[in-house]
Specification:
Number of helices: 7
Order of helices and strands: HEEEHEHEEHHEEEHEHE
Strand order of the largest sheet: 1-2-3-4-11-5-10-9-8-7-6
Number of strands: 11
CATH class of the largest domain: Alpha Beta
Distance between the termini: 45 Å
CATH topology of the largest domain: Aminopeptidase
Structural class: alpha+beta
GO molecular function: aminoglycoside N-acetyltransferase activity
Mean pLDDT: 95
Protein name: Acetyltransferase
Largest sheet: 11 strands, mixed
Low-confidence stretches: none
Length: 254
């Protein structure tokens, strides 16, 4: 069922809240979400899998102290509209470096057009028993090193949002998983994550099809809007699907 309630895709607070829920779900070693700081530590050696998601005004010194717990783990500070306006300047003054800008994109569920069928592609939801293949499929696209894949599997299996709010999708061609996506139902919107396609199967529309599968699941859940953070390669694909850039995250290391 497609929702018909009017919803402004430029309403970013629920989108950023959905993002915080998703990444906090990976904090099985440590997670914190209080009025001052939101942060998580998965223990996987990847900068997006340990980080500070939000800092309120007056919370920077505490956030820096807490972030020391990352130790040698690569980590990221996410700077979005849900943090205080001077956070980027404070990070730079403390020796931080901006490493990326990530568009936040959104679309109404009923405004995303049907995608063309991809010959030979079948899309299925991923049970717990299928997580190993799912993780090994997205890991190269995400930059997860081979020696971190077992830790990533444990991280996915322990995601705090599973199974009530988080649905994972796998795309198969000739029986092989060649693409992934996920939908998180939180904060009244559908957040789309981990859209990936194996290198040998790119430029066939598989990523768009897996994104559309997540959008369809949002529709079945009567969520009016979907949101995602786009990579450089993904942004033009999402724009063609009807997504609009509504905000940006600035990603820093410190």
């Amino acid at each position: 069922m497609t929702p018909s309630t009017t919803y402004d895709v430029c309403d970013t607070p629920p989108q950023l809240l959905n993002n915080r829920h998703y990444w906090l779900g990976y904090g099985h070693l440590y997670r914190l979400d209080d009025p001052d700081v939101t942060m998580y530590r998965s223990g996987v050696a990847h900068p997006l899998l340990n980080g500070v998601l939000r800092v309120a005004r007056g919370g920077f010194a505490r956030a820096r102290s807490l972030a020391a717990s990352f130790g040698d783990l690569p980590s990221t500070w996410w700077i979005g509209e849900d943090s205080y306006p001077g956070l980027a300047d404070d990070l730079v003054a403390a020796g931080g470096t901006q490493v990326a800008t990530m568009p936040v994109m959104a679309a109404r569920v009923d405004a995303v057009p049907d995608q063309r069928a991809v010959p030979g592609l079948t899309i299925e939801t991923v049970p717990a028993a299928g997580l190993r293949e799912w993780v090994s499929t997205y890991a190269p696209s995400m930059g997860v090193a081979p020696d971190q894949q077992e830790a990533s599997l444990a991280m996915e299996a322990g995601h705090a949002e599973t199974p009530a709010h988080l649905v994972r999708f796998a795309g198969r061609v000739d029986g092989e998983v060649v693409g992934t996506s996920a939908l998180l139902d939180r904060a009244g919107v559908g957040g789309i994550y981990l859209v990936s396609t194996t290198e040998a199967h790119r430029r066939r529309g598989i990523g768009a099809a897996l994104t559309a599968a997540a959008v369809a699941e949002a529709g079945r859940r009567n969520l009016p809007m979907v949101t995602l953070q786009a990579s450089r390669l993904g942004e033009p694909v999402y724009r063609r699907m009807g997504f609009t850039t509504v905000a940006h995250y600035r990603l820093f290391t410190l």
